[in-house]
Amino acid sequence: MVGTLCAVTILIFLISSCCNKSTCYPSEQRQKVDSIVKTAHSIKELDKLYKHFEAQGDYLGSIVALREIGKFYRNESKFDEALRIHSECLKLAEAEHDTIEWVQALNNIGTNYRRLGVFDAAQEYHYRAWRISEESTDTSSMAQKNRVMSLNGLGNIYMTIGNYDRADSAIRLALIGEKAIGSYTGQAINNANIGSIFEHKKLYDSAWIYFRRSMELNKKANNKLGISLCHTYFGLLYEKAHQYDEAYKEYEISYNMMRAWKDEWHALISLIALANLDYIMKNEERALQLLQKSEAIAKKIKSKEHLADIHNIYYKIYEQKGDYRNALKHHVRSAALQDSVVDMEKMNHIQNISLRIERNRQMEQVNRAKKELASERTIKNISYGVFALVVLFLLAVLSLMYYIQRIRSRNHQALKQASSLRENFFTNITHEFRTPLSVILGLSRNIVDDKKTDNDTREKLLIIQRQGNNLLTLINQLLDISKVKSAVGEPDWRSGNIATHISMIVESYRDYARTRKVNLQYTVKGDILTDFVPDYINKIMNNLLSNAFKFTPEYGKITVFLWKEDNRLKLDIADTGSGISEEDIAYIFEPFYQAPNENSTIGTGVGLALVKQIVDSIDGTITAESTLGKGTTFHLAIPILHGKKRYMPVEPEKTSNTPLLPQESQKTNDSETTDNDNLRLLIIEDNSDVAAYIGSQLVDKYATFYATNGAEGLEKAQEIVPDLIITDLMMPGMSGLEVCRKIRANEIINHIPIIIITAKITEADRVAGLEAGADAYLAKPFNSAELRTRVEKLVEQRNMLREKYSQIEEVTEQPDNTPIDRNIESDRRFLTKLTDRVYIMMNNEKEIDVKQLASQMCMSYTQFYRKLSALTGHTPTSYLQRIRIRRAKQLLDRNPEINFRDVAQQCGFTDYSNFVRAFKNVCGITPTQYQRGYEED
After folding, report:
1. What is the rounded CA–CA span in Å between residue 398 and residue 322?
2. Phi, psi (5° rounding) for residue 498?
3. Is 604 within 8 Å of 659 (Cβ atoms)?
4. 3-state DSSP call for residue 218?
5. Rounded CA separation 237/254 (Å)
6. In terms of Cα–Cα distance, which of 740, 721, 762, 730 is closest to 854?
7. What is the DSSP string of 85-132?
8. Between 8 and 901, whose confidence is greater?
């Protein structure tokens, strides 16, 4: 609902913005155009720029160029040209709806009329400029400057017609605006105008203050025109004070500066002031010379205002000389010019315009007040409506939040109840597991201790005991996690020296560390007395030390460091083992997480989860840092507690620790055989007991070889070229699937059947195994009879293929429409490649050497012997002999007249008798008998 109101507000804003169709040029674009135009220093250059902008369709550039051309004409007192150019500029600005240039054009036209003495028209243009500036929403510095210029123009007009109060109001408003935009030049002009008002009112002290302030500001702005005008103002005040010498100096400075600037309109003011001062000082001749020069300039620029002042001074000089005829003539001219500048009709017109402007302003204020009142009422009504909607929305939100909170509370209760049921079930089921395990372990122990038990049975029972103890340890840890998590039972808190207790735990691992050739160090900084749960500390230390021993190699180092810091017990356990990767270290405390590693032992992912649960339950923290290949360090921080309740002291005899030592599995030994004809079986399994069990089921028929991980298994497979491979799926380093893929990609061993045995029994896992190249997939726990049957059937299939290859006369390509097993196709390619190699050697009439041929096939002699025997059932020598005799038969079939010795030589036989003997062994008849039989046919 709030979103809808926001959307409506934005829509109204956009509509109102669209209605105010105004072109808004970026300030950067205006500055760029101004900087280009300012490079022109003459009307000709400006006119060239204007035409360039017009040709490019750059309206802003055209407007700015026209504005500056008009100013050039005005400064040269060519007011008619200035009016024409600025009027054209005004039309372009209005067409473009460019408010800033529009207002500037109006002010420029008003200034032109003011210089010409047409004050009623000047007032209209300055007032229009001021109105547009007031109504505009543009707050840029240029827009503010335009408003100030409008007020300055109006103030100057009011000053000229003698309405000093209205002039003072306008100019002071302009001064406030100039201060806001920080313009020294503008402030200087306004201070000078206010000084002029005080001078007209004969308040000379106040005039001095404002004129001097104007001079300071002009100097800050480096405004030479303003400085020269201030010298004129100073001369006027000195003249009023009858300090004529000082006044003359100031007027001369001003005139010289104006003449250098070629500003004839302003220069006339100083020149007329000098002539008047010469008249006062009785320097009549010099006064007349100055007046003649002034009259010529005034006529040139068509300034009636200045001509009126000039003829008035003429009148006073001739009257002083007694030349009354000339005095009268100039007096009449002065009066006529003065009346033309400000006659009564014009004065009334100006006053009427002023009154109309004032009435319009009052009407606008009344209308604005009415609109504001109506707007306030509308806003008030909208505010009430919005407030009501917001209240309704908040009530809806609160109701929704209350409903969600109730749902969450209900779900939380349901989850809590389900968690409690799950944990109770988990606790009960783990207890139920322990009962049959106790019976299994007890009976196996009794049978092992029985002296009548034979050694073979005793070894199998020891495997049962090891695996049973592993399962019992896992069940106990799962039960401990359940207890800690669900707060089942009260922990047995004790009070004592925890450093001594941890020392006892570390010492229980000392003998095992010596047998493993691992340096175990324990360092403690003083005694640490605290309340603690001995069973918790035992489990924490056992799991962390067991992990450290599991992954630390021989001659490695395990360090236990204990100290007290800020009322917390700090414990570091560091090892120099294989380390944990950065990707895995964040997850090691999650239940059942198993990080992939190269170590031969994969854990259950329960021990560290139990440690984390215990540490969290006593408000401690545990973190780990590790570097691959360098080791791992666990950091524990446990609060040192001294509870209100007085706990019993630690009893060492009741809190003794049984170390959680990694189980030593049964060692597996490869069969000792050098006979390449024996059937060989490679078992890749990281659990030695499982590997030994699999081997025990097959050792009576096969020579068994073992590997503890995928990489080792792949290397051993290439070395011995077994007849069958049995592999686990989940192994450290290279997985069983990766082993399958690498075997199928290796030409030496890609013919070997593979059986995967794993606990992962989902349909997806089975499909993934078969896609990787496995021939059979068995799930743990497996039936030994099924395993033996699978092995026998795969060996039997391989024998059938061997017989097939041994019976075919040529290795040919299979037709395209006949489906081919992936393994059979790779075998066919191998035999085809081998046959091609043999034919090349025969064509070169070389003696065929088996070892050289094996090298050309990129195999050792043993690998070549094992692979060829597995595929064809023949030894390499026997199979090569068959290829050569096949070639001999082909030669005899093509050319029955061929000499037998040539055939023997082409088939790689250097001794003819060996050729005859080999032919008879393969074909059962001699070459002569074969040729006769062909002729009889």
Report:
1. 103
2. -70, -25
3. no
4. helix
5. 14
6. 721
7. HHHHHHHHHHHHT-HHHHHHHHHHHHHHHHHHT-HHHHHHHHHHHHHH
8. 901
Tell me the CA distances in angstroms from 22 to 11, 19, 101, 107, 748, one per residue in order.
19, 9, 12, 20, 84
SS3 810: coil
Percentages (nearest 5) of helix, strand, coil residues in the chain: 70, 10, 25
* Most confident by average pLDDT, 76-80, 516-520, 823-827: 516-520
- Assess contact for 580 and 640: CB atoms under 8 A: no
pLDDT tens across 133-191, in order?
888 777 787 888 888 888 888 888 888 878 888 888 888 888 888 888 888 888 888 89
Going across the sheet that includes 557-565, the strands are 519-524, 557-565, 568-575, 631-639, 621-627
Contacts of 525 (CB under 8 A, 6+ apart): 562, 563, 564
Contact 842, 908 (CB under 8 A): yes
Quote the DSSP letter at residue 809. S
Round to whole Å and give the CA distance between 715 and 863. 12
| Verdict on whether the full-model pTM lies above 0.85 | no
Which residues lie across from 625 on neighbouring strands? 633
Question: Three-state SS for 873?
Answer: coil
Most confident of 347-356, 458-467, 681-690: 681-690
Token duo for residue 701? 């028929």
Predicted confidence band of residue 810 (pLDDT cuts 50, 70, 90): very low
Q: Hey, is 622 helix, strand or coil? A: strand
Q: Give the count of alpha carbons within 13 A of 624, CB side only.
A: 24
Position 562 scores a pLDDT of 92
